[in-house]
């Protein structure tokens, strides 16, 4: 299987945070969602994939190539949707288009105009007058108008109303129909990922936790619930995180088949863990109750 994005043992250290030995492969032809709690390192990782930030060590290959060798040709093939403000505030969208379009070898003006009309964003107003959602739509119009093979998005659905979020997911779905495109995007809105992602990569505290096919997550991860009387120290150790209340416990495991045989009574229930459960309990860790 061809990988469009490959990170190998990537490290990036800030004063109070670091990405540690981060390795990741993003497969061609699929939608991969990138999840993690606030501050887990999603934007930092995406910035390195986009070459906005450079790693301290490790290797990043995009389309099998490196930015050091082929920055221009790689960027020509990527559509970037970024949550920070990427527009010069004093310029109109039309003026931004005049700057951005010539940098892409396959710029498609009619496609761009189609999105501008569909997204109902004004071409002749200064971008400083745009709302967060309008900026996101404009950023999306640029990303989708130069026949990019790889679309990378940092929180594309944040700040969008439910109507446009749904519309965006439909656009991305349509885009995937030709089979050659790859989408890698971070999101907090896990229901959006339910709708569109084939694969999920999970980052926690700067470290890669897993990359799995969406459907395979539930083979390993589960929420186990039951009375406190079912627990002992040995069993508790085997949970990634466990929350106890007076009425019972609820815990996350990433090895459900192994864990469940530890329980000798039938008062324990096993439920599918949602992406939100996985992010929540992984962040929570081993702290008590
Ligand atoms: N340029 C920087 N200098 C110092 N620290 C930084 C810098 N950029 C990010 N950080 C820190 O790195 C950590 C990870 O930030 P990052 O934006 O990558 O997380 P995230 O997973 O995208 O979070 P969110 O979901 O809140 O956007 C944070 O603690 C942040 O303060």
TrEMBL record:
This is ABC transporter ATP-binding protein. Keywords: ATP-binding, Nucleotide-binding, Transport. Residues 2-230 form the ABC transporter domain. Coiled coil: none annotated. PROSITE patterns: ABC_TRANSPORTER_2. SMART domains: AAA (SM00382). InterPro entries: AAA+_ATPase (IPR003593), ABC_transporter-like_ATP-bd (IPR003439), ABC_Transporter_VariousFunc (IPR051782), P-loop_NTPase (IPR027417). GO terms for molecular function: ATP binding. The keyword Transport applies.
């Amino acid at each position: 299987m061809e990988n469009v994005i490959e990170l190998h043992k990537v490290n990036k250290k800030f004063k109070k945070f670091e990405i540690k030995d981060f390795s990741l492969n993003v497969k061609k032809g699929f939608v991969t969602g990138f999840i993690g709690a606030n501050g887990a390192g999603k934007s930092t990782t995406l910035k390195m994939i986009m070459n906005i930030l450079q790693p301290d060590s490790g290797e990043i290959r995009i389309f099998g190539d490196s930015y050091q060798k082929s920055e221009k040709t790689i960027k020509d093939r990527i559509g970037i949707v970024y949550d920070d403000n990427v527009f010069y505030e004093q310029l109109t969208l039309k003026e931004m288009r005049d700057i951005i379009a010539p940098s892409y070898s396959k710029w498609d003006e009619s496609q761009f105009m189609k999105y501008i009309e569909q997204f109902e964003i004004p071409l002749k107003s200064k971008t400083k007058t745009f709302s967060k959602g309008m900026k996101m739509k404009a950023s999306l119009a640029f990303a989708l108008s130069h026949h990019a093979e790889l679309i990378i998005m940092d929180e594309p659905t944040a700040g969008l109303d439910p109507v446009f979020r749904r519309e965006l997911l439909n656009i991305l779905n349509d885009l995937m129909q030709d089979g050659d495109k790859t989408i890698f995007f971070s999101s907090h809105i896990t229901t959006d990922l339910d709708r569109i992602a084939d694969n999920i990569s999970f980052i926690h505290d700067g470290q890669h936790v897993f990359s799995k096919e969406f459907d395979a997550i539930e083979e390993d991860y589960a929420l186990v619930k039951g009375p406190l009387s079912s627990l002992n120290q040995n069993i508790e150790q085997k949970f990634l995180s466990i929350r106890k209340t007076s009425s019972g416990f609820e815990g996350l495991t990433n090895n459900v088949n192994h864990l469940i045989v530890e329980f000798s009574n039938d008062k324990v229930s096993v439920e599918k863990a949602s992406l939100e459960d996985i992010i929540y309990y992984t962040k929570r860790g081993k702290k008590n109750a």
